[in-house]
Every structure is written in C-alpha cells, then in structure tokens.
Amino acid sequence: MPTPILKHLQTLHDTFASLDDGAVATYIPELGRADPSWFGIAIATVDGVVYEVGDSRQEFTIQSISKPFAYGLALEHHGLKRVSRRVGVEPSGDAFNSISLDPRSGRPLNPMINAGAIATTSFVPGDSREKRERAMLGFFDAFAGRDLSVDEAVYRSERDTGHRNRAIAHLLRNADVLEGDPEEPLDLYFRQCSIAVTCSDLARMAACLAAGGIQPSTGKRVLSTHNVGRVLSIMSSCGMYDFAGEWIFEVGMPAKSGVAGGILAVLPGQLGIGVFSPPLDERGNSVRGIRVCKALSREFGLHLFNSPRVVLPALRASCSGADVHSKRRRPLRELEALARVGGKIRLFELHGRLELSSVEMATRTILRESADASHVILDLERVFDLDAAACRLLVDLRDQLERDGKRAFLACIHEKETLRTYVDGHRSVGDWEVLDRYPTRDEALDLCENEVLVQAGVRPAELPPATLAEQELCRGFTRAEITALEARLRPARWNAGETVIAQGSTADWLLFISLGEVGVFLNNSHGGETLLTRLGPGSSVGELALPDRQPRAGTIRALTPLEGGILDFAAFDRLPEEGLVQLQLKLLTNLAAVLAARLRTAAREIRSLT
Ligand code: GLN
C-alpha cells in the first residue's frame, strides 16, 4: 500500500537520481565495477516495517558501515574498559584511511577510522579463524534480521590490494595495540568490510539501533541499550570521517558511510535510514546519500538537536476520595462519612511516558494539592513507560510524603518493570508491604478509605450476612412478599475463586448475595480482566439481564466463600400468574432504582476524572 512516506521517498529518489557528481571508488578494484546509476533508499520503522524505493535490493559491500557494529560487538563481549585500552573515542577529523594514532597512548583515535576498526576487529570472540568469522557474521545477521554473506570477489580484491590497511595493521602491532599475527585481524577486517548488504538491510540494521538494540522484525535483543548509546555516540562524532562535524551540524543524526556507496543513519527511538548510491565525494561519502539524508532531515525536522520535545504533562487527573471511591460497595453510613472526610485522600493519576521533566512538573502539583491530605495515591495504571529519572523522582516523592506523616502509595506498578526493579532495590521510609504485594489503585483506595473511616470514628463494616429482607432489591417488601420470594429461591454456594457467571453466557437467573463477596470483571483489550466492582451481602448479581435477557456482560467471581439464593428468570416470569404481580413490580422498581444510583455514581466518577 503506498503510504505517504513511500511517496515522499519516491520524490526524493526522482529528485536526486539525475545528480551525477562524484566518482565510484576504484582503490579496491572490484568496487570499480559498480554501476554509478544504482540508487536505492530505504526507511525502516521501529515496529519492523521497511519502505524502500529504487535499487533497494541491489547488493553491495557494507565496507565502513560495519565499523560501528563491530565496535558494538567488541563492547558487548569485552566491556568498555578492555576495549578502550586499544581504541579511543576521539574524532580525528582525518580521512578514513589515515594512519593516525594517539601520540601518547599509541591507540587509534576512534573505531570509525580504519586503524581503530582493525583494532576493534581483533576483539571478535572465538578461538579459530572460522569461529571468529561465524561470530562476526552472526552478529551482523542478527542486526539485519536475515542471513548475510561475504562477497568473495570484493574480499579477494581488497585483500590483494589493501597495502595501506596492511601497513596500518603492522603499525598497530608495533604499538602493541594488536597482539600476535596482525594479518589475522586484518583478514577478518577485510571479510567484515566485504559483507554484502542492500540498503534495505542498512535501514533494518539502523532501526535495530533506533529501537535500543532490539531487532524490530525478529524481536531479539542484539545489543544492550547501554552499548547502543555508545555506538550511536561514536557514529555522531566520527561516523562521517572528516565530514563528521558538518554532518551532525546539518543532518543531526548518528550515521555511518562506506566506500561502496552506502550510508546508514539512525533516528533514535524512531527509525533507521539506508541509502545506496556508489559515486562518492572527495571524502569518501556517497554524494546522493548525503543529499537524501540532508533532505530527509530538513523536510521532516529530524535533526536531533533542532527539535526540542515539549514536555507532555504527566498528570492526567487529580481527585479527592470524597468523589472517587473504591469498588467496594459500602453501606450508606460509610458513604456519608466518606463524603465528609474522603477529601483526606488525594488520588493522582499519571499517564504516558514519564521522564525527568514531566515527573518533576507533576511533583510540584502533587505536593501542593496534597498538603492537607493524610493519604496520597499515585496511580500509574496509564503510564506506559518510565525512565530511570522518573523512577527515582517518584520513589523519592513517595518517601517525602511518608516523611511528612502521610500514607503514600504507588499503585499499579506490578507491570512497570523498571519501576518495580527500582522499588525492590530501595526499601525506604514506611512499608510497601501493607498489602504484601504492589497494590492496584482499587486496593490502595480501599485501604485508604478504611483508614480515614477509622480516623473519623466510623468502623468499616465487616460485611455481616444479609437476610433477604435486607437485599437492595427487596426494599419495601411486606413480610408475606419476603416469604413468597424465599419460597422461589434456590440456595447456592461457591468457593473463593470460583466463577459465578461467565462473560457472554446465557442469562437466566439472578443471585441475592447473603454471605461473602464477589468481584465483577470485564475482559479488557490486553487480554486480561479489569475489576469493575466488588459486591457483598445485600447486593444482587446477574440482575442486569432481568429486563432484556441479554447474555452476561461481565464475569463474576467469588472473592471469598459465597452464599446466596438464586431466582430463576422463569420463576420471576411466572409471578403474575401466581397472583404476585405486585411482588414482580416491586422487584423491577427496586432494580430501576439500583441502576439509577449506579449510573449516577459512574457519571460522578467520569466527571472527576476528566
Ligand atoms: N574496506 C574499506 C577500507 O578499509 C573500508 C573503508 C570505507 O568504507 N570507508 O579501505
């Protein structure tokens, strides 16, 4: 399907295809066979889609674009400390094949010039030539998400003519940057540079870096996030050789070019770009490749430093425990008390991606608005990502609230792995374990409500068993009506955890709960369940279907051992012919009143959350 982005790539391709500046590299004779008109552009998204135009499936050798990946491989296997003993991270401003070693340490200045790359290649793990080559190729395969191979003709051509690189390798041996036979890493370096790729592969490899080291199509982690950061840093400062400064100034994306005409650029977090066009400028960078990247950066505003992101507010809603209640159906007495003292509870709902600045902004509001509160809940249910800074600030905020004598909860962190890991390593003020696990927002709210009720002198009810006369649906019943209804009920009981009603099933009865508690759950879009409400003695379940007999709208499960009486809809339907039309009418009127009250509560909650 031609999407807008594809159309744009086609326009870029049409615009720059006629450009015939530059010359195909010939110092590696085999490269000279390239057709100067080859021109492909590809963009890969972090969710694994590749858009490509032109000669995007034409293979060419990766050449220097292999260098940042080889550096990543070295870091992954040996760590920065060992790697940096042999190669630095300082831009040289020299050509790629310059023989520039740090005058003091004798190390190559960075892994993007040939000297640094040959040193880097010496880190490829394996105790034989074959194993090292397999490890190296496997790593590139994982980045591209397909099996790559070495172009033997280009390899032989470079091996036989690469006298300058051979000289560099021997110099490195002389400076003890390389140990053993310098021909070995040199040969692997030649093979590494001769890996055949397409610009579609380059885009995919770049997207893997953009996605923090996880290959978007395979879902496999190829490089740690930490090392991705290092690789991208090196690409930013040294990726385009002596053009690096101008490149980052104008294009503003980490990138790497190769003498076969490829350019790979990364927009961290967003996408990978691969361009291929063999004619090079005098610095060895693809002429069309540079033009395409410049145009993309300019037209889409991709420059990393030119597009400061506006902080999105982390606070979605802030409300009071007087307005929003836990899902426990509380007796009137408690509801009245909560209307008075519920304001002691403040609930803050955070959302989106949390980072330093957004959480910091939210922190100020939270502290201000909870000044008079005794209980504070920070609900993270709608947060989809947090970075390390956000975790730190949130946990510090909670601690500070606790130190101020408040009860403070971080709710819904069970699925937030970064935060959970942080919290687990950070036992601090107060106890996280009141609920012996991370609370959901409802559990935290329920607990806070119980505490403020106790503080207000109202002891929350222990849910005593309810008689039929105490049922919501039996309000205003005469004693005779109670007896008549009782005679038509089937007693039923469930163990804790058992399903009472399954979502979607046929509805042909309702249950008056006399003992225990149930949870009403709805299937949510993540394939899980959301707790909608909790009901106890005196409430009924399954009554929603009484008027229209629609299939069950939710799942109801016993949260404790459960007892009650079932009224079959068939028995309900027979009431008029049994001379109990009045009883039937009262049941329906009470049902309407219960539903009206529920609607009002829902409307109030929606209002206070939006
Ligand atoms: N194999 C090439 C060389 O060492 C790589 C150089 C490049 O792509 N800039 O000369």
Coarse morphology = elongated
Order of strands across the widest beta sheet?
Answer: 2-1-8-7-6
Q: First CA to last CA: what distance?
A: 38 Å
- Name the hetero compounds present: glutamine
CATH superfamily of the largest domain: DD-peptidase/beta-lactamase superfamily
Number of individual domains: 3
The number of helices is: 19
Q: Would you identify the regions where 5 or more consecutive residues have pLDDT less than 50?
A: none
Tell me the β content.
15-25%
For the largest beta-sheet, the strand count, sense and barrel status come to: 5 strands, antiparallel
The chain-level structural class is alpha+beta
CATH hierarchy class name of the largest domain: Alpha Beta
Average pLDDT number: 91
Describe the structure.
It is a single chain. By secondary structure, the protein is α+β, with helices and mostly antiparallel strands. It contains 19 helices and 20 strands. It has 3 domains: 4-300, Beta-lactamase, CATH 3.40.710; 315-455, STAS domain (Transcription Regulator spoIIAA, 2-Layer Sandwich); 468-598, Jelly Rolls (Sandwich), CATH 2.60.120.10. It has helices at residues 4-17, 66-86, 114-121, 129-144, 152-161, 163-174, 183-193, 199-210, 225-238, 244-250, 287-300, 332-341, 356-369, 388-403, 417-424, 441-455, 479-487, 569-574, 581-609, and strands at 40-45, 50-54, 60-61, 149-150, 195-197, 255-257, 262-267, 271-276, 315-320, 345-354, 375-386, 407-411, 490-494, 499-501, 509-515, 518-523, 529-535, 540-541, 555-558, 562-568. A hairpin with a 4-residue loop joins strand 1 and strand 2. Helix 13 (356-369) runs parallel beside helix 14 (388-403). 43% of the residues are buried. The mean pLDDT is 91. Glutamine binds at residues 63-64, 96-97, 114, 158, 165, 193, 258-259, 284.
